Amino acid sequence: MKTMRHKLATWACGALPAGLSSVASAAYQWNMQAPASKIAQDIYDTHMLMMVIILVIFVGVFAVMFYSVFAHRKSKGHQAVPFHENTTVELLWTIIPLIILILMAWPATRTLLSLRDTSNPDLTIKVTGYQWKWGYDYLKGEGEGISFFSASTTPQDQIQGTAPKGENYLLEVDNPVVVPVGKKIRILTTGSDVTHSWWVPALGIKQDANPGFVRDTWFRADKTGTYQGQCAEPCGKDHGFMPVVVEVVPADKYSAWVSEQKKKMAAQADDPNKTWTFEDLKVRGARAYAANCVACHQTNGQGVKGAFPALDGSKMVTGPKDDQIGLVLTGKQGTAMAAFGKQLSDTELAAVITYTRNSWGNKTGEAVQPAEVKSQRK
Questions:
Q1: Superfamily of domain 123-268
Q2: What gap in Å lies between CA 284 and CA 289, rounded to an integer?
Q3: Dist CA 320 CA 1 (whole Å)
Q4: Which CATH fold topology does 278-377 show?
């Protein structure tokens, strides 16, 4: 059955675009992405088998229908033959569709069961969806303890249409997921705020990330390379700006990446008891604001009228700093204001709050120290 599916898929894949020129084939994606894992290949073969069956049924039904209309047309003097029932015909149009459904259900069910087999992984990664970025935590296997966020790096001028679109427009990130080739990777998905969906077509993986629930799936990449995907569940204003990038590398390069990431995490670890200067907090806060806040509150702090409040001149921002610290830590239910307490460190939160209180028309002159944020976490 598997060999037959693969042959049918190969035939269909070659037959369908046969009439297209090489230029047209490069310009338009008519089919699924080239599979880069066994499960993706199974999905692709099942899809192509279904398309072949559908095509045969379509051609057969319409051929009979058009022949009947042509051969028995009124101009030839054909008279309709009335009949009430035909047991043979009724048996045929019951048994034949049943056989077709079984032929379709068998490979589809086998592929679905394979998708659910997350046992014995070599590496387990937790994926958390945020508005509008991804969080990754390496839970088990080589790289355990590594944690980072991944956000789109497509420049705003490309998004606004004031610059030419790049090669990886809306499919580029600052921190891609890195995994070793040939290893079984278990993915756990959940959401921090609303429902997201982690999708990488070439790897045959798509799993919703729902707040309050943990779902799992898996993949094993058969070849090295960079594979791209997107959030596949509408999740708010910047849903279209949540790319997924997975880099599959050889085992030795993966080990080197793990070592580098752990050194980087150790170097970036901040002492929450350190006292920062006002200027250093503003500089770091500008970076944190650009990475986490600008999508809603905009570069100029004016927000989006009717959707996201302005920070420039806001009574919350220019008022008591403890109130703003609490809001940024825990968010506000019923609004788009997310809780950043689990996303950012005490130093990053102190810096971004300091930045917002002393930017645009806000001139409080106050600096918020990491220790103040830490005290409100308790």
A1: Cupredoxins -  blue copper proteins (2.60.40.420)
A2: 9
A3: 69
A4: Cytochrome Bc1 Complex; Chain D, domain 2 (1.10.760)
Q: Whole-prediction pTM value?
A: 0.72
Helix (H) or strand (E) holding 57: helix 38-71
Whole-Å CA distances, 37 to 111, 227, 351? 13, 11, 43
The residues near 346 (Cβ < 8 Å, ≥ 6 apart) are 270, 272, 370, 371, 373, 374, 377
For 133, counting Cβ atoms within 10 Å of its Cβ (0-12 exposed, 13-18 middle, 19+ buried), the class is buried
Token couple for 18: 């046969």
Task: Indicate the domain borders of the chain.
Answer: 2-116, 123-268, 278-377
Convert the pLDDT of each residue in 236-283 to its tens digit: 888 999 999 999 999 999 999 999 998 888 777 777 788 888 898 888
Q: Which CATH number fits domain 2-116: 3.40.30.10, 1.10.287.90, 1.20.1730.10, 3.90.550.10?
A: 1.10.287.90
Cα–Cα–Cα angle for 342, 345, 348, rounded to 5 degrees: 125
Does 278-377 match 123-268 at the fold level? Answer: no
Residue 52 tokens read as 């072949």
Which is nearest to 358 in space by CA: 275, 287, 281, 290?
281
Instruction: Give the pairing of strands 225-231 and 196-200.
Output: antiparallel
Looking at residue 286, the DSSP 8-state letter turns out to be: H
